[in-house]
Amino acid sequence: MKIITVFFSMLLLLSGLKAQEPRYQTYSTSFTIVATKDGQDMEWRNKKIDMVLNYQTGDFIANIKGSDFSNKNQGQAANNISEASPDKIFKLSGIFPIDALINQQTTHANYQIELQLTNEDESVFERIMFDMSVTKPGDGEASYRIFILTGTLYANQIQLPAFEGMDNEIKLQLFFNAYMQN
Fold first, then answer.
1. Confidence of residue 3 (pLDDT cuts 50, 70, 90)
2. Can you tell me the distance from the alpha carbon of 54 to that of 172, in angstroms, rounded to the nearest whole number?
3. Residues 22, 6 contacting (CB under 8 angstroms)
4. Top-confidence residue, 62 or 124
5. pLDDT digits (tens, 9 = 90+) for 36-46
6. Which of 26, 45, 66, 101 pairs as cysteine with 85 (C-beta 3.0–4.6 A)?
7. 119-151: string of b/e by CB count within 10 Å (b at 16+)?
């Protein structure tokens, strides 16, 4: 009877492990938007991002909620993203060069990646090229990485109310730390 109990316990444990997708555990996330109006930079930041990076496939998804942005220019007249898109979720998705990331031998590497920014409610479907800087700290855990992605969005293409009257180039920066979970 003990053998049957142990067998079923192992079966349950293995089925639970199989159901989990291998991924990078992400934390310390930050998404920053910088737009310029009349020579003044306007900055919004969101630190509440739901993000997944699958380390077998390289699939990357970041869900960014409009209401979680804070305006860094409180004293200046600036459009507020959280007011313009309060319950809207913008999704950044694409594929990271996962084999290169896992096998990265240098402390620092740069990659070019294309991510899709989507929000069906606002009819946003934009492809954005990002410069991705990946740091693998020399003395840290082998699976730990620091990601900084920088890209440009164009106001005339996205046409969101929050960016009305802003210069055309809008700078985007996504920052996160991650380590591989087995």
1. very low
2. 22
3. no
4. 62
5. 988 888 888 88
6. 66
7. beebebeeebebebebbbeeeeeebebbbbbeb
